[in-house]
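Hi R.,

Here's the input for the adenosine-5'-triphosphate complex you asked about:
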Amino acid sequence: MDYQSFNPGSLPGPVTAGNAVNGLLANSMTFLGLGSMLKSVFPSLVGQFSASQISNTIKLFLLGSTVELGRRSWEWIYTRFRPKLYISATFLDGDPVHEWIMIFLAEKRVWYHARDYTIQYKTSTQQWGVTVIRPGEGQTQVDPEGVEELEETVSFLPNYDTPQLFRWRGYWVEVIREAPKPQGLPHEIKVSHGSGTLRLNLYTLNQGALRDLIQEAKEYYIEESKQQVIVRSLGINQGMVHGIFGAPGSKQFWTDIKKKPYRPLDSVILPKGVLDSIVKDAREFITSEHWYTRAGIPYRRGYLFHGPPGTGKSSTVYALAGALGLELYTLSLSTSGLTDATLQMAADGIPKRGILLIEDIDCAFPSRDDDEEEMRQAQAKATSSRVAENMMMGIPPPPGRSSVTMSGLLNVLDGVNSENGKIFMATTNYVDRLDDALLRPGRIDMKVEYKLASRDQAAAIFNRFFAVPEDARGSSEKMPYEGSVHHPLADEFASRFPDNEFTVAELQGYLLTCRTFPRAALDGISAWVAHEREARLGKAERERERKAKAKEAKQVETGAQMAPGVPPMFQGFFGMQPLPASGSAIASTQPPRDQSGLEGDQNLGSDRVISAPPLDVPTSSELKVPEL
Ligand SMILES: Nc1ncnc2c1ncn2[C@@H]1O[C@H](COP(=O)(O)OP(=O)(O)OP(=O)(O)O)[C@@H](O)[C@H]1O
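And here is the predicted structure with adenosine-5'-triphosphate in place:
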């Protein structure tokens, strides 16, 4: 049978759209000679099917192709035409702008009429939520105080992918929360991260409107944050067991956001003039960008606060950040999985005038009794570059400790990206453990020593606790640090307090036990001092015993590793090394040290691992001929 006999022109019946398409397809097949081509190529196949079946299949195929072509063409035209209808903006989770917009939208009650919520308990990282509908607005009979309390503890979060439309300055704006994508490397458990992306469609062609909206959100956010200090830290990827920060593949490192209540500067009690000089220096720096540029000096500033724990170092940083209206970006160098590469990337993610705060910057140093740390120093440098390479290839670092090196840290401080007005702040309890290279001006420009509490500080703290102004007396809400005046018992209290023996934190701890009883605080101070001294003596004694035991155990262990039957003094002659192999690795990467444990100038090489060997643990070379 010839397929031409199926020419719809020869078919009876009315001329319909279907007939027309059939005719068109059949004619094109005739034109292309598809029937005879198929017959010649697949004679056996064609033999099994009737010509009409083949012809109909081809027609269907061509029809489908035409429809698909039409669909794609429409999509192409639509995607090019769409931006002309509205401006679309995407805000990535973890980015500060995402935070501004979220809080702004919550304030604008954009999701006020949403019908689809996720309810969750409020955490310190949950910064925004939708206001629940209040009584008086007709929707609920619940006690208003109860509703308010509920709002403080529970978040109403609009669900993902449900668009909400609202009006802003006369424009229609559509907002959609998109669910976070599951993340993680192939061999990790895939879990979603963060609170998702936010998309805004602004129905206008005016680009300026988008800028204005972001500006308004930013201003609102700054205003809202005035009574708080924003503290960001490295967000740990949920899928990570191995130390990946933020979202893999993105530059969002600082995704863990907390808000600390604003701390007034005068609540930090330091010797006269100290706090003023820090604040003055920081303020001057912030307003001197042009001066730095003109003078050709990198526009950055570093501060180091050092001294015993509990003397107010961190308190100074938080109070300063609040007073200057700057955000804090905190990290610990001992964070598991942190490498030079991730440290650099994280630092690059800090915006202009953000404060990078490294608390306890000496923490990568070993405790003096920890032998394992020596081994770690040698391994850390080698590991650091390997881990960085692996991470580039998507292989996560092994669980464990940080492998940041001194050169990595110095690169961060000196890097080009640190010159955009970044402030670097560090705290330490052991300034002597820090490398001179780190402490040089340009990296650390201002060092402030914190000391144990003086009598003046004791009087000031006493006043802060008990000298409550007239108008606040009798109020159960009186705050220890607000508008205090001189208390008549303050001087006597200070005279009974020993100078430079206790920290402010310890003193504060004592005063808290008699928070509203100044007389009891005065009467009890001498007994408290005596008790604390006794406790310290006991602690020191226990510590001495512990160290002696640890030393003994070390000597026994060293003896066990010597050649059996060979007296210790001859071990060297028999080529025996009393230390494990790792000891020699340390010797090769660690600079030679003198008996005092201090390193010579030649040892300040910038590629040295931050951690230093314990000062009172003998080095491998010292151990070669153990004492008999
Ligand atoms: N100089 C001070 N003025 C006011 N409060 C202080 C001062 N020093 C310590 N405190 C109080 O003691 C507590 C601990 O202070 P902070 O964390 O600032 O000490 P730190 O020196 O940073 O300690 P660490 O080295 O352990 O981090 C805080 O509650 C703080 O309010």
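One thing worth noting: The two ends are 112 Å apart (CA to CA).

Cheers,
M.
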